[in-house]
Amino acid sequence: MGLKKVIQPDYREGVDRKLLNIIRDRFLLINQRRLERTQQALPLRHQATLDLLPLFFQVNHPLLPGYVSRDTPRSVANYVPDKLILRAAQGFSKTFKYKAEKRLRPDILSLFMMGSIGTIAQSEGSDIDIWLCHRSGLNKNEFALLRRKADLITEWADELGLEIHFFLMDANHFRQRQLGGVDKESSGSAQHFLLLDEFYRTSVLLAGCYPLWWLIPVCDENEYDKFAELLTQKRFIRETDVIDFGGLAHIPKEEFVGAGMWQLYKGIDAPYKSVIKLLLTELYAQELPDKLNLSLEYKQAIYNDELDADDLDPYVMLYRRLERYLKSRDEQERLELIRRSFYLKVGNNLTRNSATKNASWQRNVMARLVKDWQWPEALLKTLDHRNTWGVPQVIKERKAVVSELTHSYRFLSQFARTHHLKAHINADDMAILGRKLYAVFQRKAGKVELINSGIAPTLHEDHLAFHHQSSQPLSADANGWLLYRELDSAADVAFHPVLKRSTSIVELIAWCYFNGIVSKGTRLSLVSGKSTMTMFELQNIINTFNQLTPYPLPPVPQVQFRQNHFPLHTLLFVNVGVDPMAEHSARGVHKLSDRNDSLGYSAFRENLVTTLDQISLNSWHELSVQRYELGDTLIQCLKHYLASLVEVGDHPMPRFDVRCFCPNRAVAIAKRVKILFTDVVDAFFSAKGILPVRYIIEMDHRFFVVQFVNQQPRLTGYDNLALLMRYLEQPQSSYAPIVVDRYALLDQPKLKLVFEKSRSGTIQVFFYVRKTEADLYIVDEYGSLFSYSTPYHSHQSLLIPLYRFLTSILERRQMHQSIDAFFADLVLEFCEIKAGKGEREYRVEKKQLFTDATAFFVDVQAIGNYDGVGELLFDIYCDEQEFSVLEYGDQLIPAVAHYIHSKRTLGEPYPCYLTDLGLPQRLDQGDYQVGLQTVQYLQYKKALEDKLNEALQLLAG
Predict the structure, then answer these.
(1) In-domain check, residue 558
(2) How many structural domains compose the chain?
(3) Which of 43, 426, 704, 902 is 20 to 30 A off residue 356, Cα-Cα?
(4) Tens digits of per-residue pLDDT, 123-145?
(5) Residue 516, CB half-sphere, CA atoms under 13 Å: how many?
(6) What is the C-alpha to C-alpha distance for residues 384 and 366, in angstroms, rounded to an integer?
(7) Do 150 and 48 share a structural domain?
(8) CA nearest 201: which of 325, 284, 92?
(9) Could you list the residue range(s) of the whole structural domain that residue 920 is in?
(10) Sign of the C-alpha dihedral, residues 637, 641, 642, 644?
(11) What is the pTM of this model?
(12) One Pfam match, by short name (predicted)?
């Protein structure tokens, strides 16, 4: 072995061109070895593809891959194809002839491969990242043509099975730190010098100019620009021979935070590769600038004539540096994780038989490293059989990976705070990275944890056993579910660890499905205990996931993280493990009526929806499971579903599916639940936003009203119709129509008809005559409903007093409002409800009133005011005669009744009606109410009329 010749040039004392050539040739020697190793690892057809790439950018020929036009930028600096390459090119076109154009200014300065290519980490599946370095000054059209050419070559290579990514680079722009945003293959604004560090130590020159950086000694890196200018301006080197991306003496601390966050982002899908790079970021943050970065360490080794390609392998150098760092900190567990990550990244299974003579250089290097690590054979076998890892192994490994990622996040955060740093990553990119980290690692109630992000190729289990906890010894009253693997017999439970526990079997199934643990080939077993869960249900739930949701979930588009998450898909499972008609079946009780509604079934009006399991997937691909099994399960589920839709905003409504596999009426139950949810959503959500609707649901002898208040759903229950009607009288802040569920109020067809016919901008009076009585339904300007029954004598005697009263109210309100106010345009409308042909069929017929008949009625006016203690009292005027509460006190109503009775010459018993009512404007202290609503006048009108008519009955009687 010859003596190593260490080069220590001092350009201050003069530049030796011969020495410059020696330095360049050393780098080119390592470059050639890396290029040879790249070719050795590729199949023959891919080797030829790589050889031809520079030629494709050298010329524009219509029959060669990547041709766009003759105007596309071309010609690679200092590139001269050899005969073998030209012969290969003629395989595309026999007429192809290469003609050198020496005077043509090259548009392509260099082609560099970078990353794992040509390293110990290169595998058959490795993609190739290529920096396509073009000259500065390309216009937009030229740049677009070159981009298109690169894309076409990528497509051509992809057809051959070789994955190539081209990155168009302008060295001048790069030195000025003009980078793009975050995408799948780029770190965006997160790093610059760290990217340059990786480029200098991993790049392989395919063709074109070599890096000027090679020629600047490590000791002069701090004055890189000065010596770069010296070499080029003084013409010690030809400027056309080199490309300059800048020096690397200093990496700003701020960049470690941004680059670290980027690696955390990548670590979600490729943890083993990312934990290595994250540790390098930590190491740099701790050791720089006191120690050299890896690229300078690599350059110094070449200057020191240390040209062993194995030792200079970028990944081997990286590992050695990390090992020294962790050993110095005595962090053995982290070191073991890094070793496992490195071994799995290299992917060279050492336990697989391989002849020593034919062993690849990667295998030999890896074997030497593993020997140094003193790994037992069992560990090697475990790592080499990663594709057979089960759930326990993956969960254990995931804990180690997540622990390291968490450690890195905390270190980066602390480092930024300690040094008062702002990361070299823009706010938009930081938000994207943070949101993805949150979506994957943040624990939330009901969230399904995805445990296999890049840890094992598959988690498929051959056998899974689902056991209800009540089947376990000493757990007869328990109500949860347990999941086992490889459990041949239920009697062996005591000898097997529980893989997963949950209160919901649907959550267990979802966890298995979305982690790839269960598949079509998995053998299933079920022990139901006190549950009525069946194998039929179990298999159908899995089949439903297969039909409706993909596995694995596709990557989340980057654009989704730029905005708040919103729901994409909701899936409901009804009555899992429950028979809602079990008691009836046991007693032999059968349906006693024609009521088929699953929410009010048979004469018992029973709700057949007992439990609900809701699976929700949002736009960040967070998956959650919520079980509803206590109280009003359907109503609670509906409420939370509606609340989630508020987050949808301008996006399409999420997909919604319902499934039920219980023993009785499963299809009808699922259909009914889906209809209900769909109808409610259609009633509230429109292109204009959330509509101010009140939606009535009837279920299990009860009524529920859905209404949005402050953009959130409110669901209120009422035990009977009377309580519901009292609620519907309540004032509203704006017009809020009443929408009735298609299966609700079937016993109240007239009421449903009133709701269907009511509309904004009117006060509508609906009446239905029943011989000597009439039912009145008054829908006011905001949709509040006031209803009552009253004795009937004639249409005129029923409606004219009400007409006069409502007209007076409108006139009073108009005196307090502007001309163009809402109430100024209100229309009074009277409609008679008449029986139709069917038993429960009714129709509406508008009525025209003869208002000149008012002379036959006594004017009865009431004016309300608060007394000194806040009690509302009324003075009453009959035909302009005043009956004051101050004068009559408790005898006010009898006095008024006596006066009215005296005006009836024949003592007729017909009712007395108020024709006008005045109320104080601050009648209701609610902060939402600007003015009084018609329904409030009607409530006081009816109360006063009842008292007067009761007094009149006593006088008549």
Answers:
(1) no
(2) 6
(3) 43
(4) 888 899 999 999 999 999 999 99
(5) 19
(6) 13
(7) yes
(8) 284
(9) 858-956
(10) positive
(11) 0.81
(12) Adenylate_cycl
